[in-house]
C-alpha cells in the first residue's frame, strides 16, 4: 500500500471501534433496504437518507477523535445553551402539530429538545466527575434538578416521548453514579403511588393513547388506528415474513408513518419473527459492546457517559418496538438506525462517536 | 497509606459500577425477552388471525365524508349548497410519468389548459399520495369512455364527489367566504383541535367568512364503513357502517335581495356597505366591491386566475367592509356632537362664529373649513346640517383627545366589533397613550384638531361605522353585529338561535340624542348635505355625509376633483338610519374615490331603504345625473 494511503487510513480509523462500526453499518444497510420498501421503492427518499447517514458518520468520526476530557468541556455550555433555547421555545416557540417544539432563529428552525438528548447526560456525567471525591446526598439532589428542569420543560411542550427518553438517559447516569438502592426503591414506590396524579395531568390525546392501548378497537379511525394497523402488519408477517417488498399493509397505505416511527412494522411484516430476532440480536451486539466499553472506561465521566448512551439506545429500541407491537402507547420515538430522518440518525451516531472516543482514548488518559 | 485507601475505594467503586452494569444487562435481557415473547404471540400464535385480517381479506376503514351544511339567508334562500359530480382524479405518487398520463387521458376526456394549470397548482400545494382532481364535472359519456380504458391508467380514478357551490357567486363572497383544499396549516389546526379522525376523507375546509368561522358546525360528523378488501385493495363487502351526520344548516341574517340591490347600486364604484337592524344587531347586507367568484376557489384556482385577482389594482380579494380602514371624515361629527353635549363642553344653543378656518392660539396654521369664507354663526343643529368643520375643530380642542377617546370608544370605534367572521380590523381611535405606543411620540394639541372632523389619525372599517350608526339609531343600545341567525343541528334537529346580542346601553341624555337626530334628519332635507336621500320618501331618514381625503392638500391649495387622478379622489361616506323615529335599518356606505357622500352614496342608501322598508324595487335605470348638492 502506498504510504500516503496507509497514513490516511490510519488517520481515519485511528479512533474508530471497528466492532461497533460493523454492527452499525449492518443495521443502517438493513434500514435502507426497509426504507426502500416502506417508501414504495422511492429512490429519492433512500438517497436523502443516505445523505443523512453520511452527515451522521462525519459527526461520529469527528466526535470519536475528540478525547473524553475535551468533551467534558462542552458539558456546561451545551446544557446552558439547551436550557436557554428550551425556555425560548416555551416563550416564543412555533406551534406545529399542536405542540410548541420548534424555535425559529430566523435562519433556521431548531428543536432544542433534540440537543438535550446529548446535553443532559453529558452535563450530569460532568457534574458527577467534578464532585467524584465526595459524592453526597446533596450532589444527587442537585443532579436531579439538572435533570428535571429540562425534562419538565419538554413535557410541557408537550412532547412526552422525548421527555421520557431524556429523563431515562439522565436517570441512567444517576444510576451508574451509584444512587443508593434505598432511594431507588423509594423512587419506584412513590412512582407507583403518583400514577393517579400523573394521569390527571396528562393531555387528553395522551390519555386517549393509553386507553386505546387497552382496547384499540374503541377508536378505530383515531388513536387506535396506528396500533391496530401495525399489529396486523406484525401478525400477518408470521414466522418468516412475506418477503422484501411484499408487505401489503404498508404498500396499501394502511400503515401510517411507515417510513419513520412505524418502519418496524414494515420490517416485521416482510421479514417475520426470524427478522425480528435477527434485529434484536444486532441491537444486543451493539448494546453489549457499549456495556463492555463502559466496564473498561477509565474515568467516572467516561463510565457514566458510556453507560448512559448504551442504556438510552436500548430504551429507544424497546420503546419503539414495544409501541409498534402494541404493548406500549404510541409516542414519537424512532427505531434507532432504521427509521427515516436525519436528526435521530445524527443523535445516535453522535452517541456512538462518544463511545468510540472513550474506548480509543483510554490508554492516553492513563499515562 | 492515603493512596492505598484511594485505590481500594477506586476498586470498590469499579466493582459497584460493574455490578450495576451487570444488572442493566439483566434488565435489557428481560425486556428483550418480553418483546420476543410478544412477537411470538403475534407472529406465531395469532398469526392465522392476523393473516386472515391482512392477507386474504384486509379490513379497511373507509371514511364517509358528511354532506357539508347548507347556508341560507334570512328568508330561506340557499346561499351555499352541495352538488354531486364525477371527477377524474390522479394520485401522483402512483403515476410514473405524469405529463404522459395527462396527455393520454386527454384522448378520452377533455382536459383544457386551465384544468392543467389548476392541477399543477394543486400538485405544488398537496402531498403526492393524495388523490387530486384534474377534471371535475365529467359528462356521462366521458365517464363511460374513461371507464372502458381505466385499466390503462394505474393511479387514475373516477370518483363521485360533493362540490360546494355558491349560486350567487360574487354577491355573497364578502361574508360567506369559501372553502378550499386542506393544506398543511389547516392540518396542524385540525390536529391541535383533536379533530383528525373526523377529517379523514375530508378534502375541503372553510378558508374565510362564515365557511371558516362556522367550520365546526358546517362540517358534520364523518361516518365510516368497515369493509373487507382483497389483496389488490378492491372492496369485497361491507361489514358494518356508521353513517355520517350532515353538517348543520346555518341561517344568516342577510337578506339576499337587499344584498343584491346594494351590490347593483354600487355600479362600477369600489367600496363597501354594511346594513344592520339596530334593534338586534342582525346584519342585513354586507357588501365589498368589487368582489370575486368564490366558486373559483372551491375546485382549486389556477395560477393565472389567481394572479389576475391578486394583482388587480381594484383589489377584489380585499374585504373592504371588514379588513380595510378609512378615515371616517364628517360621519364622525354626530358622535363628536354627542361627546360635546354629554360632557358639557357645549350646549345645543351655544354658537360659534366660523370665519372659514380654525386657529390654535399662538399658532399661524389654519385648519380650513371645507367652505371658504365659512358658514357664519353656527350652532349644534347647523353644524351637522351643513357639516361645519370649524365647529368641530374648536369642539375637539375644548374636549382634548383623551376625553374624545373615552367617550367615543363607547360607540365601538378603535376596537373590533366581534362580528362572527374572522379577519376584522380594529381601526384607530387615537389617544395620547395610543400615539406613544404606536409612534413613541407625545400627543400635540394640533393632533387633536383634525380628529374632530374624522381625519388625522382616525380610522374605521365600514363595519365599525355601521355598528356605531346602529347604536346611534337605537338610542344608545349596543347590539353586537352578527351574521348568523340560527344553526339547525342535524343530529338533534334542534334549532339553536344566536344568543341575544345585546351588549350595553350608553348613558347619554335622551334630549341630546334627540338634538343630534333632528339635525341628522335635516341633513336629508333641502339645505342639508344629502337632500337626495330624503327626497320624496314617505318615511324620515337621519343621515350624515362624509368625505375622506386620500391625499393631503397643502396649505393654501385648493382641492379640485377634476385635476386629480381618479384613484386619488376623495372617498365618499354616508351613515344613515330609517325610519328616523323607529329605526329598522342602519347603514354605513363607503364609496372609494366617490367624491361627495351625498351624491354617490346617497342614492345607494335610498334604494336599500326603499326596498327594506317599503318593498319597493329600484328602477332599473338609475338616474345618473348629478344633483347640485352643497359640497361636504
Description:
The complex is a heterodimer of chains A (367) and B (632). With 367 residues, chain A is mostly helical. Chain A folds into two domains: 29-65 and 203-367, no CATH class; 70-201. Helix content of chain A is 73%, strand content 3%. Chain A is built from 15 helices and three strands. In chain A, strands 1-2-3 form a three-stranded antiparallel beta sheet, covered by helices on one side. Chain A is globular, with a radius of gyration of 21 Å. The two termini of chain A are 32 Å apart. Chain B is of the alpha+beta class and 632 residues long. Chain B has three domains: 2-45; 61-251, Penicillin-binding protein 2a (Domain 2); 256-614, DD-peptidase/beta-lactamase superfamily (Beta-lactamase, 3-Layer(aba) Sandwich), CATH 3.40.710.10. Chain B has 22 helices and 23 strands. In chain B, the strands form seven sheets. In chain B, strands 2, 3, 4, 5, 10, 18 and 19 form a seven-stranded mixed beta sheet that branches. A five-stranded antiparallel beta sheet of chain B has the order 12-11-23-22-21. In chain B, strand 14 and strand 15 form a beta hairpin. In chain B, helix 10 (256-265) runs antiparallel to helix 22 (597-614). The longest helix of chain B is centred in the N-terminal third of the chain and has 44 residues, at 2-45. Mean pLDDT of chain B is 84; it is low at 621-631. Classes of the chains: A mainly alpha (367), B alpha+beta (632).
Q: Approximately how much helix is present in the residues of chain B?
A: 25-40%
Helix content of chain A: over 70%
Low-pLDDT segments, ≥5 res of chain A: none
In total, how many domains does the architecture of chain A comprise? 2
Principal-axes shape call of chain B: elongated
Structural class of the helix and strand makeup of chain A?
mainly alpha
| Average pLDDT for all residues of chain A | 85
- C-alpha end-to-end distance of chain A: 32 Å
At CATH level 3, the topology of the largest domain in chain B is: Beta-lactamase
Number of helices of chain A: 15
> Biggest interface and which pair forms it?
A-B, 55 and 47 residues
Largest sheet of chain B: 7 strands, mixed
The overall pLDDT of chain B, averaged over residues, is: 84
Most strands sheet of chain A: 3 strands, antiparallel
Percent strand of chain A: under 5%
User: What's the total number of strands of chain B?
Assistant: 23
Helix run count of chain B? 22
Number of strands of chain A: 3
Gyration radius over CA of chain A: 21 Å
- Low-pLDDT runs of 5+ residues of chain B are 621-631
Amino acid at each position: 500500500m502506498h504510504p500516503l494511503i496507509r497514513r490516511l487510513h490510519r488517520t481515519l480509523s485511528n479512533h474508530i471501534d471497528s466492532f461497533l462500526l460493523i454492527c452499525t453499518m449492518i443495521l443502517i444497510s438493513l434500514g435502507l433496504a426497509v426504507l426502500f420498501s416502506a417508501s414504495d421503492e422511492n429512490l429519492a427518499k433512500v438517497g436523502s437518507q443516505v445523505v443523512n447517514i453520511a452527515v451522521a458518520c462525519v459527526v461520529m468520526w469527528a466526535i470519536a477523535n475528540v478525547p473524553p476530557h475535551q468533551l467534558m468541556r462542552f458539558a456546561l455550555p451545551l446544557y446552558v445553551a439547551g436550557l436557554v433555547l428550551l425556555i425560548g421555545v416555551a416563550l416564543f416557540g412555533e406551534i406545529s402539530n399542536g405542540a410548541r417544539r420548534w424555535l425559529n432563529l430566523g435562519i433556521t428552525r431548531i428543536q432544542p429538545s433534540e440537543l438535550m438528548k446529548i446535553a443532559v447526560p453529558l452535563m450530569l456525567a460532568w457534574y458527577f466527575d467534578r464532585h467524584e471525591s465526595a459524592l453526597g446526598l446533596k450532589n444527587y439532589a442537585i443532579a436531579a434538578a439538572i435533570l428535571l428542569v429540562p425534562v419538565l420543560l419538554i413535557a410541557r411542550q408537550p412532547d412526552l416521548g422525548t421527555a421520557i427518553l431524556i429523563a431515562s438517559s439522565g436517570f441512567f447516569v444517576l444510576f451508574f453514579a451509584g444512587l443508593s438502592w434505598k432511594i431507588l426503591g423509594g423512587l419506584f414506590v412513590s412512582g407507583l403511588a403518583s400514577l393517579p396524579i400523573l394521569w390527571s395531568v396528562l393531555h387528553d390525546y395522551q390519555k386517549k393513547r393509553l386507553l386505546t392501548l387497552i382496547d384499540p378497537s374503541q377508536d378505530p379511525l383515531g388513536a387506535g388506528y396506528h396500533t391496530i394497523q401495525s399489529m396486523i402488519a406484525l401478525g400477518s408477517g408470521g414466522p418468516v415474513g412475506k418477503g422484501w417488498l411484499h408487505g401489503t399493509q404498508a404498500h396499501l397505505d394502511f400503515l401510517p408513518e411507515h417510513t419513520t416511527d412505524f418502519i418496524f412494522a414494515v420490517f416485521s411484516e416482510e421479514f417475520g419473527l426470524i427478522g425480528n430476532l435477527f434485529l434484536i440480536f444486532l441491537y444486543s451486539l451493539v448494546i453489549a459492546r457499549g456495556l463492555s466499553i463502559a466496564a473498561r472506561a477509565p474515568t467516572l465521566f467516561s463510565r457514566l457517559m458510556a453507560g448512559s448512551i448504551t442504556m438510552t439506545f436500548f430504551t429507544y429500541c424497546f420503546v419503539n418496538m414495544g409501541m409498534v407491537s402494541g404493548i406500549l402507547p404510541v409516542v414519537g420515538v424512532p427505531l434507532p438506525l432504521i427509521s427515516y430522518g436525519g436528526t435521530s440518525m445524527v443523535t445516535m451516531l453522535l452517541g456512538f462517536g462518544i463511545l468510540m472516543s472513550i474506548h480509543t482514548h483510554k490508554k492516553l488518559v492513563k499515562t | 497509606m492515603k493512596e492505598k485507601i484511594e485505590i481500594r475505594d477506586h476498586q470498590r467503586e469499579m466493582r459497584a459500577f460493574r455490578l450495576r452494569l451487570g444488572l442493566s444487562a439483566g434488565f435489557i435481557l428481560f425486556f428483550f425477552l418480553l418483546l420476543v415473547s410478544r412477537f411470538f404471540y403475534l407472529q406465531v400464535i395469532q398469526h392465522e388471525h392476523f393473516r386472515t385480517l391482512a392477507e386474504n381479506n384486509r379490513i379497511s376503514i373507509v371514511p364517509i365524508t358528511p354532506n357539508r351544511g347548507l347556508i341560507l339567508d334570512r328568508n330561506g334562500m340557499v346561499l351555499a349548497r352541495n352538488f354531486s359530480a364525477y371527477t377524474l382524479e390522479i394520485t401522483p405518487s402512483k403515476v410514473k410519468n405524469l405529463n404522459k398520463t395527462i396527455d393520454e387521458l386527454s384522448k378520452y376526456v377533455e382536459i383544457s389548459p386551465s384544468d392543467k394549470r389548476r392541477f399543477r397548482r394543486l400538485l405544488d400545494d398537496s402531498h403526492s399520495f393524495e388523490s387530486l382532481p384534474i377534471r371535475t364535472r365529467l359528462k356521462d359519456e366521458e365517464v363511460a369512455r374513461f371507464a372502458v380504458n381505466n385499466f390503462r391508467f394505474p393511479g387514475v380514478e373516477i370518483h363521485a364527489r360533493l362540490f360546494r357551490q355558491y349560486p350567487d357567486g360574487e354577491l355573497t363572497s364578502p361574508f360567506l367566504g369559501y372553502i378550499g383544499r386542506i393544506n398543511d396549516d389547516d392540518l396542524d389546526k385540525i390536529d391541535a383541535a383533536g379533530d383528525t379522525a373526523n377529517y379523514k376523507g375530508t378534502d375541503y375546509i372553510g378558508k374565510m367568512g362564515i365557511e371558516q368561522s362556522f367550520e365546526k358546525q358546517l362540517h358534520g360528523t364523518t361516518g365510516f364503513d368497515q369493509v373487507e378488501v382483497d389483496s389488490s385493495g378492491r372492496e369485497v363487502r361491507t361489514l358494518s357502517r356508521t353513517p355520517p351526520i350532515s353538517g348543520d344548516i346555518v341561517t344568516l341574517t342577510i337578506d339576499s335581495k337587499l344584498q343584491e340591490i346594494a351590490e347593483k347600486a354600487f355600479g362600477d364604484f369600489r367600496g363597501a356597505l354594511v346594513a344592520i337592524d339596530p334593534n338586534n344587531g342582525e346584519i342585513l347586507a354586507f357588501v365589498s366591491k368589487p368582489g370575486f367568484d368564490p366558486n373559483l376557489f372551491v375546485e382549486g384556482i389556477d395560477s393565472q386566475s389567481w394572479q389576475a385577482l391578486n394583482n388587480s389594482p381594484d383589489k377584489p380579494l380585499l374585504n373592504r367592509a371588514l379588513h380595510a380602514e378609512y378615515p371616517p371624515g364628517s360621519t364622525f361629527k354626530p358622535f363628536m356632537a354627542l361627546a360635546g353635549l354629554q360632557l358639557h363642553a357645549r350646549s345645543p344653543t351655544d354658537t360659534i362664529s366660523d370665519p372659514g378656518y380654525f386657529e390654535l392660539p399662538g399658532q399661524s396654521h389654519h385648519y380650513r373649513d371645507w367652505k371658504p369664507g365659512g358658514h357664519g354663526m353656527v350652532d349644534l343643529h347647523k353644524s351637522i346640517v351643513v357639516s361645519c368643520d370649524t365647529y368641530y375643530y374648536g369642539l375637539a380642542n375644548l374636549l382634548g383627545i383623551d376625553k374624545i377617546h373615552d367617550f367615543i370608544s363607547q360607540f365601538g370605534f378603535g376596537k373590533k366589533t366581534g362580528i362572527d367572521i374572522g379577519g376584522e380590523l380594529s381601526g384607530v381611535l387615537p389617544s395620547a397613550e395610543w400615539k406613544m405606543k404606536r409612534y413613541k411620540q407625545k400627543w400635540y394639541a394640533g393632533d387633536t384638531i383634525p380628529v374632530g372632523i374624522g381625519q388625522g389619525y382616525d380610522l374605521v372599517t365600514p363595519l365599525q361605522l355601521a355598528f356605531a350608526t346602529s347604536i346611534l339609531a337605537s338610542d344608545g343600545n349596543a347590539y353586537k353585529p352578527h351574521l348568523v341567525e340560527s344553526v339547525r343541528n342535524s343530529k338533534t334537529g334542534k334549532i339553536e338561535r344566536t344568543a341575544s346580542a345585546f351588549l350595553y346601553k350608553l348613558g347619554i341624555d335622551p334630549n341630546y340624542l334627540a338634538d343630534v337626530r333632528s339635525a341628522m334628519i335635516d341633513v336629508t332635507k333641502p339645505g342639508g348635505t344629502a337632500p337626495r336621500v330624503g327626497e320624496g320618501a314617505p318615511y324620515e331618514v337621519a343621515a350624515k355625509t362624509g368625505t375622506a381625503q386620500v391625499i393631503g392638500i397643502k396649505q393654501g391649495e385648493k382641492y379640485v376633483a377634476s385635476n386629480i387622478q381618479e384613484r386619488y379622489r376623495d372617498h365618499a361616506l354616508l351613515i344613515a338610519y330609517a325610519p328616523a323615529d323607529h329605526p329598522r335599518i342602519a347603514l354605513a356606505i363607503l364609496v372609494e374615490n366617490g367624491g361627495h357622500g351625498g351624491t354617490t352614496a346617497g342614492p345607494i342608501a335610498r334604494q336599500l331603504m326603499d326596498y327594506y322598508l317599503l318593498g319597493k324595487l329600484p328602477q332599473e335605470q338609475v338616474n345618473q345625473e348629478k344633483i347640485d348638492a352643497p359640497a361636504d
